[in-house]
Design goal:
It is a single chain. The chain has 272 residues and is α/β, with parallel strands linked by helices. The chain has two domains: 1-92 and 183-272, P-loop containing nucleotide triphosphate hydrolases (Rossmann fold); 102-182, no CATH class. The chain has 13 helices and ten strands. It has helices at 44-51, 73-77, 85-91, 108-114, 117-120, 124-129, 132-151, 167-179, 197-214, 225-231, 249-253, 256-263, 267-271, and strands at 6-15, 18-28, 33-37, 59-65, 70-72, 93-95, 185-189, 217-221, 234-239, 242-247.
Length: 272
C-alpha cells in the first residue's frame, strides 16, 4: 500500500469556544482529485486553511509525505523564523481562493512571475550585477509562466492587466499562478464559483488534464456536484465540522448520511 501524498490525522480546529472542525481524518492519494464537500458552514474552508498554512490546527496533524520525508504543516506555520503559509507553498502546497486574489493592477505575465519569487530569488548583489545565474533564473521564470499561460489558453492575454480579464479567465489565471510555484498538491477553493455552464465544463477538462498530462494531485472544495462527480476519484463529506462520509463518488452519492445532510432530514427518513 502506497503512502498518501497528504495525510490529515484527527484534526480539530477551535476558535475560542467554537469548534469548526472536530477529529477530521482523510488522505489524498498521489495523482488523484479529492473533493471536500458539505453544506454551507460545514468547515470546509477552515480545513483548507489548516492544510495550506493559514491556520495551525488546535489538535491533530496535517502531513505532506514526500519521497524522502514527511512534513508536518503545523510546524511550518509556527516556525520561529519566517513561519507561515509561504513556507507551506515552498514545501509543495499551493492554493487558489473562493474570492479571486490576483494582483489586478499587474499584467497577467507579471502575476505569474511574482508567484515564482521563491524559485528565482537571488541575493541583492546577483540582482544588481545581473550575474549569469540571475539571468538564467529570469529566463526560466518567463518560460515557466508562458508554459502555464498556454496550458490555460491565456497566452494571448499575457500583457493585459489581470483585472481586465473576464471572470472565467481570471479563475484560470489563478490556477496558472498556483501551478507556477511547482506544487505537489494544488488546493482549489470553489473554482467553479461564478462560472457559467460552458466555463464550468472547461474547468472540468482543465482539472482532469492537470492530473492526466501533468501528474498533478488536486484537492478541491466545490458546491457544483456535477463538476465534483465528473472530476473526482475520492470525495470527503463534512457536516458540522465532522467527516460523515469518505469514499468513491458512487459510495458518497448513495450514502444516507450525505443525503440527509444536504436535504436537512434524518438518516431514518432517507432510508425509510
Amino acid at each position: 500500500m502506497t503512502t498518501p501524498l497528504l495525510d490529515v490525522r484527527n484534526v480539530t480546529m477551535r476558535f475560542g469556544g467554537i469548534v469548526a472542525n472536530r477529529n477530521v481524518s482523510f488522505t489524498v492519494e498521489l495523482g488523484t482529485v479529492t473533493a471536500l464537500i458539505g453544506p454551507n458552514g460545514a468547515g470546509k474552508t477552515t480545513m483548507f486553511n489548516c492544510i495550506t498554512g493559514f491556520y495551525r490546527a488546535s489538535e491533530g496533524q496535517v502531513l505532506l509525505n514526500q519521497h524522502d520525508r514527511s512534513i508536518d504543516i503545523g510546524t511550518l506555520v509556527t516556525a520561529p523564523i519566517k513561519g507561515g503559509s509561504h513556507l507551506v507553498t515552498r514545501a509543495g502546497i499551493a492554493r487558489t481562493f473562493q474570492n479571486i486574489r490576483l494582483f489586478k493592477e499587474m499584467s497577467v505575465i507579471e502575476n505569474l512571475l511574482v508567484a515564482q519569487h521563491r524559485i528565482t530569488a537571488n541575493n541583492v548583489v546577483s540582482g544588481v550585477l545581473r550575474t549569469p545565474a540571475f539571468r538564467r533564473a529570469e529566463r526560466e521564470a518567463v518560460d515557466r509562466a508562458y508554459f502555464w499561460l498556454r496550458e490555460m489558453n491565456l497566452a494571448d492575454d499575457a500583457n493585459r492587466l489581470a483585472g481586465e480579464l473576464p471572470y472565467g479567465r481570471q479563475r484560470r489565471l489563478e490556477i496558472a499562478r498556483a501551478m507556477c510555484t511547482g506544487p505537489q498538491l494544488i488546493c482549489l477553493d470553489e473554482p467553479a464559483a461564478g462560472l457559467n455552464p460552458s466555463e464550468t465544463r472547461e474547468l472540468s477538462e482543465l482539472i482532469q488534464r492537470l492530473c492526466s498530462e501533468h501528474h498533478q494531485t488536486v484537492l478541491v472544495i466545490e458546491h457544483d456536484m456535477g463538476l465534483v462527480m465528473r472530476i473526482s476519484q475520492h470525495i470527503v463529506v463534512l457536516d458540522h465540522g465532522e467527516v460523515i462520509s469518505d469514499g468513491s463518488p458512487d459510495h458518497v452519492a448513495n450514502d444516507p448520511a450525505v443525503v440527509a445532510a444536504y436535504l436537512g432530514v434524518s438518516e431514518e427518513e432517507v432510508s425509510g
